[in-house]
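Appendix B. Raw example, untouched.
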Amino acid sequence: MTAEEFKSTILANYRRMYAAALAMLANSDDASDAVQDTVARLWERRESLGDVDSPASFCIKAIRNACIDRIRSRAEANVPIDADFRHPASAEQADDEVSLQMSQSAIERAIAALPAPQQRVIRLSAYSCCSNDEIAAQTGFSDSNVRQLLSRARKTLRNLLLNKNAL
């Protein structure tokens, strides 16, 4: 695989790899490191990557395995998950972090309240950065059905998040 082929097949999936790593590791620095390490390993093995049928799936599988390795190494080292916690420099930053965590948990609760097909397509769209065509291929739904499910999911999420008492 040439450098141009590597760019067009592997590096084209960089955002998806980062989104998947962030979802698994819940830390942007760790996610960035995992993606960089994975891309470097794939670059070293680029000669054998020419036979890959689906580069997007291969990249997601590679980052998933890298994240699992990182999580296992943390567990083996008996490093508590909160060891990455950095004390905010000011009370204002602490408030921002708390409100961000509250917003994220509210979004997760709202997504969990959606019907299963809407949950699936919104997660694929938001967390895996899949296009409507890719979502349709993965779920078996038609393209118009995917658009409809995403529209309804977004509308329901908007209503649930605006009416916080519903959660």
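End of appendix B.
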